[in-house]
Amino acid sequence: MRTERRLTLSRVDWHIQEGEAFEPVKHCATVRGPIRKILLGERVALNTLARCSGIATKTSSLIHLLRSSSPGNPAAPILAGTRKTTPGFRIPEKYAMSVGGADPHRHDLSSMTMLKDNHIWARNGDITNAVRAAKSAGGFSVKVEVECQSEEEAVQAVRAGADVVMLDNFKPGEELRAAVQRLRRRFSGESMDEGENGKPVREGKKEFLIEISGGLTEKNVSGYVVEGVDIISTSSIHQGVKHVDYSLKVVH
User: Least CB-packed of 21, 113, 196, 238 within 10 Å?
Assistant: First the structure.
């Protein structure tokens, strides 16, 4: 009981709002409490703040570039992070992505079933088999996403009932745009596409999301802004980001 009372003696008064942009040098907060307690937690607190502020800043910057590359487009793609977070630090880093304006994507393996290349090969390379097995195990409430290395794999995934297809490491620009347009047209239920031997093939209408991933940077954003893409995921907003430098000074 005494420990709890002592811990409540320390408090932080913030002078800026969460997610607010500012220029250095800035007095961000005032910490009050027993000096020994403050100094014991100083480095952990500053490291956490520096790391998470760096992620939020990089995220916000990339979102601004995405919106600038698609002016006037209310259906601009969602920017999402990945699960490639620091071990033991996933929740703070995911939260920082949210503060920066991105979707944190999956929090853990139970959030959504994602079938990557190794999962597919574990089912003898059969995407249809893998999707059906995932649907059976997860039930109606768990979405299934399939990582696809080619347009052909994406078609197989959609046919099998995948909720999300990830076009992984597709070349940004015209190649990506053409692949997305063909997928959307193929499963619109309205158009005719040529199949083998040039024979027209009509696919039934399918509802699915398209996610693209791999290689996104601040320098090539425009190549990823493609009509028909729902999500752009990248680990660049939380891996190797520059930290924001904070320090704590005792008033004397």
Answer: 196
